[in-house]
Amino acid sequence: MFQTKAITKLAAPIASRTYASVASASNGIKVASVADASESPMASISLVINAGSRFETAENSGVAHYLKAFGFRNTQSRTSFRTVREAELNGASLTAEATRENIIYTVECFKDAIPYFADVLGDIATATKYTEHEFRDIAKLVAFESLSARSSPATRLVEGYAEAALTAGRVAIVGTGIDSAALAAIVSESKLAAIPASSASTLSTPASKFNGGVQQIYDSASPVSHYALAFEGASDAATTRVLANLLSGERRLKWNTGVSPLAKLAAEEGFGLQSFQSSYSDASLVGVVVSAPNAKIQEAVEKSQIASPSAETVQRAVAAAKVDVSEALATRAGKRDALAQAAFGRTAVAVESAASAAAKTFKSKPVGAAVGLSQATPYVDTLGF
Amino acid sequence: MEAIGRAVQTNSAFRAIVRPLANTWVNLSGYRRLGLRYDDLIAEESPIAQEAISRLSRQEIDGRNIRHRHAFQLSLAHQEYPRAKWTKAEDDYAYLRPLIEEVRLEFAERDAFNSMTTVKK
């Protein structure tokens, strides 16, 4: 029913884009979805819980990872075996993912199976058993996935965290390939509508704080040293991406040396320069990894700093950032991230001017991490920040 | 027969009469005199029972092992515990049977999925 509706809607010329429109299900869960521009038979539905690792406390560190691993396990109404076999029969794929902000359970399936999988996700949210024997299984998996999960939280802890996390305000349903009003209707009829509006226990939400620091790892065997410098990024994701592009030493065209200052440096001197960035709801990090022969690492790090970029350089970085964002939005995972942000009401805040953001960020005190011959790698406080 | 069973469970007066008799009856069967629980007697030589036992918590499995050891020792020596050390009725709860039932259903489900035929719509 919804399928035909969605398709007829697509057949008509799209007058207003329904991109990232946010609807509400019957119990107040936010539902954000975007219908495909093509008539693809595929769709996806995700249960996004705003309870990633940043909401953990000292007592329950690692618990978000465990909760992620409890996805698609035994529930009151179906066993984990049944969930997996029925997903196979439907040709669906099930994934669970934990990030710093969110825990995300995703089902990618055919459009007509969406109501069934909305129920499966509803079961995860409201009826998971959190049994002890599964916990032992999961603990092995988590220990394998993350060396940092050295603490041994018990199932009770996971259950308590789940109770606090799985409330309507912290949960969003995100879909692709299906119109958000249609998805909201499905969600209201499924078990997802049974997610409680609030719970006795709540999660603390400490504000993110940037703590600088230095890390040196000694490796005398390697002829090459690596040095990572990271700054506290701009307050919005878009500007942070521009800053990362300013720091990038990558060439976007084949057979040339690149035009950005750091790309030129990389091509002329043979340094490896790779920028990175990560943005969260209230913090971001932007930086560059410099790789060079041991004898030249100090010079490479000192040269790979941008104090005040020219207007043209900034313009190029902005264009490159636009391409990066558009490319990310073309994938299902990219759409999912953007929709989850929209569902939790985090749309772009006032964008700083890229040039002033660069001036501010690249003069702030960075974090430094070095791997290699530590006699040769510079200390952060000698770099003149 | 079922009607009688239901009457025993629902009628409190009937229960008050039957409950002490039931306890005496179970005590006569002897396993409580060796400190065992009823679920310790369930044959464990089957895949279902093995899986169910592997799902017990550490505390339950340790208790089960120590009860088996003590009972075995008493049986070798042709002895019983003194009355004070018999298993109490409230300790003789079903700690394994619900797990066995759960695993049995899971095995049946697995068989059903493995032998099913799909029909094209």
TrEMBL record, chain A:
Primary localisation category: mitochondrion
Membrane topology: Peripheral membrane protein
Residues in Peptidase M16 C-terminal domain copies: 161-302
Gene Ontology terms for molecular function: metal ion binding
InterPro entries: Metalloenz_LuxS/M16 (IPR011249), MPP/UQCRC_Complex (IPR050361), Pept_M16_N (IPR011765), Peptidase_M16_C (IPR007863)
GO annotations of cellular component type: mitochondrial inner membrane
Subcellular location: Mitochondrion inner membrane
Ranges that cross the membrane: none
Recorded superkingdom: Eukaryota
Keywords assigned: Electron transport, Membrane, Mitochondrion, Mitochondrion inner membrane, Respiratory chain, Transit peptide, Transport
Coiled-coil ranges per UniProt: none
UniProt domain Peptidase M16 N-terminal: residue ranges: 37-153
Family assignment from sequence similarity: Belongs to the peptidase M16 family. UQCRC2/QCR2 subfamily.
Record-linked PANTHER family: CYTOCHROME B-C1 COMPLEX SUBUNIT 2, MITOCHONDRIAL, METALLOPROTEASE
Protein name listed in UniProt: Cytochrome b-c1 complex subunit 2, mitochondrial
Source organism of the structure: Linderina pennispora
From TrEMBL, chain B:
Gene3D superfamilies found in the cross-reference section: Cytochrome b-c1 complex subunit 7 (1.10.1090.10)
Superkingdom of origin: Eukaryota
Similarity field: Belongs to the UQCRB/QCR7 family.
Cited SUPFAM superfamilies: 14 kDa protein of cytochrome bc1 complex (Ubiquinol-cytochrome c reductase)
Alphabetical keyword list: Electron transport, Membrane, Mitochondrion, Mitochondrion inner membrane, Respiratory chain, Transport
Protein name: Cytochrome b-c1 complex subunit 7
Gene Ontology CC terms, in alphabetical order: mitochondrial inner membrane; respiratory chain complex III
The species this protein was found in: Linderina pennispora
GO biological process, alphabetically ordered: mitochondrial electron transport, ubiquinol to cytochrome c
Pfam annotation, one family: UCR_14kD
Protein topology in the membrane: Peripheral membrane protein
